[in-house]
Design goal:
The protein has 183 residues and is of the alpha+beta class. 38% of the residues lie in helices and 25% in strands.
Length: 183
């Protein structure tokens, strides 16, 4: 992965595949440059056996291929950048992944297009799940919740309706780019 937003896209896809109805993404950058990313879902969760081996690239639940690189690469990138990685999961309740990294470290990946990544998740999953983004940096705070958008739209209008998609793009850029920057 060449940036953190692409990691986020890949990891959020795991949550979607796990049947999550809500995917919560939290990003916090402190005054010293420590970035903490948390991805939490209410999907099917992992068995203790899978959880114990999921950081290996040869652990996957997919039947189409025998490797899964998203979690192992995120763990490696966090640790290479002077940070940490943790994963908690309970069957039937969901999974929480937390990765932190020192953004001043030479091995820390750039953020990438965070608002574009969130938009991609929403447009490629127009009916389900919902996404909650919460972000905080020394420049301010941002929040975006698709449950609020769906409540305003009504249940019969998907998020990938062209006019809605354009509004989402502008709203995400206005909310997120001032504190996390654009691509």
């Amino acid at each position: 992965m060449r940036d953190l937003s692409l990691h986020l896209l890949d990891l959020a896809q795991n949550s979607i595949t796990a049947g999550a109805s809500l995917v919560t993404i939290r990003m916090e950058l402190d005054d010293q440059g420590l970035l903490t990313m948390t991805l939490k879902d209410d999907g099917k969760g992992m068995s203790p056996e899978l959880l114990a081996r999921v950081t290996s690239p040869f652990a996957t639940t997919r039947t189409t291929r025998k490797v899964g690189l998203g979690i192992p690469l995120m763990k490696e990138n966090a640790e290479k950048a002077g940070g940490s990685f943790s994963l908690e999961s309970e069957e039937g309740r969901g999974t929480t992944l937390t990765a932190s990294m020192d953004t001043h470290h030479i091995d820390c990946l750039p953020m990438g297009d965070l608002s574009g990544t969130l938009l991609s998740l929403m447009l490629t999953n127009p009916l389900r799940p919902d996404f909650l983004f919460e972000g905080r940096t020394p420049l301010g705070e941002a929040s975006f919740d698709t449950r609020e958008v769906r409540a305003a739209l009504g249940s019969d209008i998907p998020l990938n309706e062209p006019a809605v998609a354009e509004w989402l793009k502008q709203a995400l850029e206005e909310e997120i780019n001032p504190i996390f920057g654009g691509a």
